[in-house]
Amino acid sequence: MSAEGTSAPASGLRKGAPARRRRRVAYDVLPAHLGYCLRRAQVAVFQDFIRTLAPLDLRPAQYSVLVVIAANPGLSQAELADALAIERARLVHMLDRLQARGLLRRLMSATDRRSHALHLTREGQKTLKRAKALASAHEARLSAMLGSETRDSVMRLLGAFIGSAAPSRRI
Questions:
Q1: Whether CATH 3.30.1070.10 fits 59-162
Q2: Distance (Å, rounded) from C-alpha 67 to C-alpha 124?
Q3: Cα(75)–Cα(119) distance, rounded to whole angstroms?
């Protein structure tokens, strides 16, 4: 709240206040920390990916869920949670939302009556096809920004963190 009792604009400045020069922030050792740099890069990439998928009202995690279900019809919720390292409670909420949108269905598992087999609906398949096209455009922007050789090198290096060599092209 400002002194007048009204909320300050999102910029943190009161309405009508002169613009202040932003202070240059020192990062000290942070840019030398791998985790810090990975996180900053991840945020930048995700911001573009979120904007890219916005027309389909999909978030990156939802996209990943649809991709993995399409590639593994009948996958259980527990298997999906493990594969994508998503907390099971969070995944259930996400699956509920995707199911309510008509993008997936849960069927009783043929092998385990306690679990559900996940399948995309026809609408889910169509949405995923459009999402993959948008994701491909996103990847092309990143590749153009980095250059294809640098992108391929980054993918190989990041593969070390996920336990396998990441393919240079997989869209």
A1: no
A2: 10
A3: 8
